Structures are given as C-alpha cells and as structure tokens.
# Entry
Amino acid sequence: MYHIIKRIPRKDKFLLFITIMVMLVSVMADLMQPLFFGKISQILATQSDINKIWTSSVDNITFSGWIGLMAGAAIVGIVFNIVAVYITTEVSVRTAFQIRNDLFNKVQYLSSQDIDKVSTSSFITRITLDVFHVNELMVLLFTLLVKAPIYFLGGLVLSITTVFQISQPELNNLSYIYLVFLLLTFFTGIILYKAFPVFEKIKKNYDNNNSIMSENLIGSRVVRAFNLEENQITRYDSKNIALKRNLIKGDSLTAIFLPLFTIIMNLSVVFIISYSGFVSINIPADRRPEVVGLVTSLIQYFNILLVGFFLASFVLGTFAFTRVSGKRINEVYAINDSIVDSKNPLPIKKTNISFKNVSFKYFKESSDWAIRDMSFDINEGETIGIIGQTGSGKSTIVNLLTRLYDVTEGQITIGDNDIKEVKIEDLRENISVSLQEKILFSGTVEENIRVGKPSATDKEVLKAAKIAEAYEFINEKENKFKYRIEERGKNLSGGQKQRISIARSVVGKPKVLIFDDSTSALDNITEKKLLNNLKKELKDSTLIIVAQRINSVKEADKILIINDGKLIGMGTHSYLIKNNKDYKEIYDSQDTSKDK
# Structure
C-alpha cells in the first residue's frame, strides 16, 4: 500500500493532511462528551426535585450549560467528521481514477511477451475490482485509522484517570477489566492469520471466473453452434462454487469478530455497572452523586476505548484483504517492459530485411522452439510468400519482425541495422500488419480505417478502401463510410471485416506490408483483384504474404516454406514445384493441377 499512497499527487497529500487535522478535532470533540455526560449524571444523582435540576450546577456550570456543551461537542464532531470523510472520499476517488489510467497506459506499452506474464482476465480484475478495493481502503485509512488510535489511547488514558479519581480502593480494582484487551488481541490475531490466505484465493477465483466469462462471451457463436451451453454452465459453476466457498470462509472468519466484540463489550459494561453498584454501598452518601458521574464517564470512556480497538481491528481486517489487491496492482507496475528503445535508437533509411540464424521460444523455461536457426533475406520492393502448416511458425516470424517479441538467439536486421537498435515507433510506422484475427473497434468504418493513419484524409480513406476491395460493400451500407460497426464487428461478414482490416493496414502506404493469413476469408477472385491493386498502388512497398493457400503466394518473387519452426525451402513457385517435395505435396493437395 505504501507504493500506492506514494502515487497520490502532492496537492491531494496536502488535502489528506488537512483531513487528519479535521478528524483530530472531531475525535477530541467525541472524547469530551463522556466528561459532560458524567457531570450531567452527577447533577441528576444529586437532585431529586426535577424543578431544581435546571438551576443546579457542578464546577460552576449549570445543568443546561453542560447539556449545551455536550450538544455543541456532538455537533462539532459530526460536522468535522463529515468534512473529513468528504475530502478523503474525493481524494480516494481521484487516486483510484489515476491508478486505473496508469495501469491502462502501462498495459498499452507492454510487449506481447510481457502481457503473457499476466492473463487478460487478471488484468481486467486488477484494473477494476482491485483498484475499487484500494479506493475503499484509502477512505478507511484516512478516517477510521485516524480515529482508532486516538479513540483507543484517549479512552485508555481518560478511563484510567477516571478510575483513580474515584479513589475508592475497591473500585480501583476495576483496572483488571483492561485484561479483556489481551483476549481481544488474541482472537483478532487468529482471525487475521486464518483469513489472509483465503483472501488471496478469492482474488485468483475472481480471475478464473472472469476468464471463463470473457471466453464464453467472445466465443458465444461457437458455444451455440456446438450445443455447448450446458458444458459451459457446468464449467462456470465449478469455478463459481470455488469462489463461493472461499467467500463464505473469508466472510465467516471476519464475521466472527463483530459478535465476539459486542459480547465482550457488553459484558465489560455489565461488570463495571454491577461491581460499581455493589461497592458503592460502602461509599459515603455525600460522595455517591460524584461517583455516579465518574462511573458514567468511565463506562463512556471504556466504550470509546473498545470502539477504538474495534475500528483498528476492522481497518486491519480490511487492510489484510486489500493488501492482496495492492500487491496485485504493484505487480503490474513492477513489470518492466522487456522490449524498449536502445539508448541511441537509429532511424530507418532502408527496409531490406535479414533473418540471421534466428531462433525463438515463447517461454524461456520451455524446451519447445517456435522457430529454429532460420536465415533468409528480403530485398526492398520484393513480394515474399511464407507458406506452411498451422503451427509451423509463420505468425512467429511476423511477431519477431514487428518486435512484439525479441529473438531468443540470432539477429534480425532492417536496413542493415539490428532491429533492436531501431526506434520502435519508426519500425511500426514503416511496417504495417494485417492480422489473421479480424479485430475491429466499435465506431464507424472510416474511424476503423484511420486506425492505420489517424491523420488520413477522406481521399486517402477512400483510396485504401478501393485497394482493399472494400469500397463496393461500404458504399452499399447506410451512411456509407459513416456506417457504425458494432462491438467486434458482429454486424459484418468475415470477408467484410477482413477487407476493412486490410484497408486499415494500407491507408498509411507503409514501406513494408505484411498479410498474416489475412485473405483467408476472401474468394479467389477478390483476392486476385486485391493483390493486383497492391502491386499497382504500392509497387515500391515490400509485401510479405503469410498464407496456407499456394494461390495466395504463387506470384511472389520468393516463397519461404516453413515446417515445424524450420525453413525447409525457398525459391520461386516454378523452382519449388520442380525441386521441393514438400511444396509439391501442398500444391497437389490444394487441387491446383489445372495450373500445372
């Protein structure tokens, strides 16, 4: 939590200091009330005639005066408490807002390999639920935690002082009542010790629930297509039951404290009243009103003392639960982006690309290599095809080329410079990728196309749509380029989403354009038109086509054949047909014999 509090702006830290001062005034006002109430009780015990009560006095202050002082202290305590809570709540909400922004911004700049360290569902839980819990704790820290020690210490000092003011040896034995705090401390320690590991499990349960919920919503069509509703319900139920059990266990542990505290507090008050009443029999009659007032004050101070202990225990319990949230938030802050610019990044002047004995695995501790000892060159302006079976490592090449991941071994160069020495922003401005996964954002068609170049003019957006063979269907939509795309593009077909995605990648006229199996949803005629448009409009750009269909790459200047993470063949279509058995098998299996 210390790291969270450090992030509070200086202006808000000053406001929190003011809050503490205001809260101190509120607490002091509360501590004065038992004294006033004791004086009122003393007058009531002295006078049997109600008509004379209002003129009776103690310490030269009348009955009405003590009531006025008590009411004034109560009003001051309430007003100052409201002010303190208001300021703290406002600061806490602002801090939570800033933390959410910081975490979101942090995630935006993390590399894919860094994001892999924390699951998507866990990121969502941390940015929402964990930040909410931290917000709640901050309100408690700067209100109740300020009250608790002052209540406890003030109640302790004033109650002990009151006990000795009574100056009756038997009544001084009331001091043994303070042993009750050893009992409360013991039980509180056991409860927190048992509860903390349960709170950690609860956070993981929330992650698991969010993960299944997210998968189910995104894959809702698959669930319905394969009649998996009952299967998914059962799967979610198992995780939800685990969450329920841990929540019940955690709540049960913390719920024990309140009735335990209430019982001990009430028994303590009963003991004070009973013992005081029994001993008061031997007190001289003229001192009994004073003793009544002192015992009344003692009960009030002892209650304040117990309330202070309860508030401290409550805050500690909340802290134990929220400490897990703070730890999880700090884990995100602590992730150091492993893919960053070098100290003196180099500009990109040329876009020729070389892979030099490149090997890569997604997890360092894994023994499985995604690609192994791969070497090839791509010249500026070339069209390169990359073909291979699913899982062969084609997309890994794209991930490494765009520096979503860094190579494990070997070197990638662009313009004869190591890709790690090139400014990341320049790299991704020069290399545009159209992904196999057709991800569109909620918004209009033109907004989605402009993702590739925010400053693109209407003319550039129109041209990109024509290159991607998307103009015709966009023009048929209501509002045309202003047509609103729903979440995940569910109001578009697969081919339409793919063409808008391609338009997005070409609108900025990149020097290197990568199609990562992004024409799979297009028919052969549309795909052929698209490739012809690219050769005509982006003839100076390097085009890298990752595909499974040979028809998509057969016109390429060079074709790379990838299998099990290794480069097993390279050359033109005609060369590979004659000299590469694997390529020939793929070619024959795709029923392209008519082109032989």
Observations:
- The chain has a mean pLDDT of 80.
- The chain has two domains: 2-334, 353-439+509-595.
- Residues 41 and 377 are 96 Å apart (CA to CA).
- The first helix runs from residue 2 to 6.
